[in-house]
Write a structure and sequence with these properties.
Structural class: alpha+beta
Largest sheet: 4 strands, antiparallel
Distance between the termini: 35 Å
Shape: globular
Number of strands: 7
CATH superfamily of the largest domain: Butyryl-CoA Dehydrogenase, subunit A, domain 3
Radius of gyration: 21 Å
Number of helices: 10
Oligomer: single chain
CATH class of the largest domain: Mainly Alpha
Helix content: 40-55%
Low-confidence stretches: none
């Protein structure tokens, strides 16, 4: 199934440079795509063709194996260009990490070659009728001949309309969590573009139906084995989400700056020639910039903590990585939502014009930060700070 190889990025600096170039191409059309709910098929194709989707593949398999710190900044860069396009590869990188940590040598060889050829992964994780988002009821039955039958429906399947592969989460007959890679064009697979959220409108986070789909057992990976000891898999997945939120905050600050300088008028009591010279506006904009800088610092600190834990994995280093990521998630959450909202007050009522679509940043921030609530992060941070209780090794922190 492998196709012609895309350019292979070989180091961290090149990965960030390519991300910046792509983000610069994404930004001019971001508002229009959001307003029209136009799926970014060409933009995702450009992302795949850039080589960025292969940067977490291990060097032994031909990838750049970039650092976690680089990945956080890479996600922020892409999401500043277009928050929806920035979110789409999060699940791809998540499942590349599943293969790195739980895949067999043969599985790694096959799927990493697919990734380096530009054949990326969507996702089909969430279900609607289970008690929590981390529980799975989809039918998953190994057959005597070595194949597996999959039957059921998944929702919020971000990126799946664009992806050749749609990995799912399910429980095996022993109730252990597994991941299974399903070709998007396999008989019985239907991808529906029915996501109509107020924000992150073009992520393709719709429904995927699996009707009596059969795949070989070679495409099933035992996710449960990752949690038999200390792990930073969960921290890494959450960390990528923090990068998305930072990118949204940066985009709101960027567009707010432009509109304050270009469109806003001085307040009735202001003596400044223009709002950008009003001390009160300068001060408040400085507060917004500080929130973004604080969020970025915590994101980079979390990336360093993940890298340190990977280099010397222990219960203690894994806990520190999880706590650092929880802090980054909490602060990027607050920065994205508050900056995207508060910037309106510095521009005035003109900022609410639909043709400006400035509100897309708040809609994106509010939608994406509901992924796993900030209160969960603060609870674990507080319990550790006060009671010395580390976060649980659940893959969720």
């Amino acid at each position: 199934m492998t196709t012609t190889a895309v350019p292979v990025i070989t180091d961290d600096a090149r990965a960030l440079a390519v991300a910046r170039d792509l983000a610069a191409d994404l930004a001019p059309g971001d508002s229009e795509r959001d307003a029209q709910r136009r799926l970014p098929r060409a933009e995702v194709a450009a992302l795949a063709a850039s080589g960025l989707l292969g940067v977490t593949v291990p060097r032994a398999f031909g990838g750049a194996d970039v650092s976690a710190r680089t990945m956080g900044e890479l996600m922020a860069i892409l999401s500043e260009g277009d928050a929806s396009v920035g979110q789409i590869p999060q699940n791809h990188y998540f499942f590349v990490q599943v293969l790195r940590e739980a895949g067999s040598a043969a599985q790694q060889e096959f799927f990493f070659a697919e990734v380096l050829a530009g054949r990326h992964f969507g996702n089909a994780l969430s279900e609607r009728n289970t008690r929590t988002p981390g529980e799975y009821a989809i039918r998953f039955e190994p057959r005597a001949g070595g194949d597996v039958l999959i039957d059921g429906t998944k929702y919020y399947a971000t990126g799946s309309p664009f992806a050749p592969w749609i990995p799912i989460y399910a429980n095996d007959p022993d109730d252990r969590k597994v991941a299974a890679w399903v070709p998007a064009d396999a008989p019985g697979v239907t991808v529906e573009d029915d996501w109509h959220g107020m924000g992150q409108r073009t992520t393709g986070s719709g429904t995927v139906r699996f009707e009596q789909v059969v795949i070989p057992s070679d495409w099933v990976v035992p996710v449960w084995t990752m949690f038999e000891g200390p792990e930073v898999f969960g921290a890494f997945g959450n960390y990528l989400h923090a990068g998305i939120d930072l990118g949204i905050a940066r985009a709101a600050l960027r567009d707010g700056k432009d509109l304050i300088r270009r469109l806003a008028r001085p307040g009735a009591e202001s003596t400044a020639a223009r709002p950008a010279e009003d001390p009160l506006v300068v001060h408040e904009f400085g507060e917004l910039a500080l929130r973004v800088r604080t969020a970025a610092a915590l994101l980079h600190e979390a990336g360093d903590a993940i890298d340190a834990a990977r280099a010397n994995l222990s219960v203690e280093s894994a806990a520190e990585a999880s706590l650092a990521v929880a802090a980054a998630r909490a602060e990027t959450d607050r920065a994205a939502v508050s900056v995207a909202s508060d910037v309106f007050a510095l521009i005035g009522s003109r900022a609410t014009a639909n043709e400006l679509n400035l509100h897309r940043h708040w809609r994106n921030a509010r939608t994406h930060t509901l992924h796993d609530p900030r209160r969960m992060k603060i609870q674990h941070i507080g319990n550790h700070a006060l009671n010395d209780v580390p976060p649980p090794p659940s893959g969720l922190i």
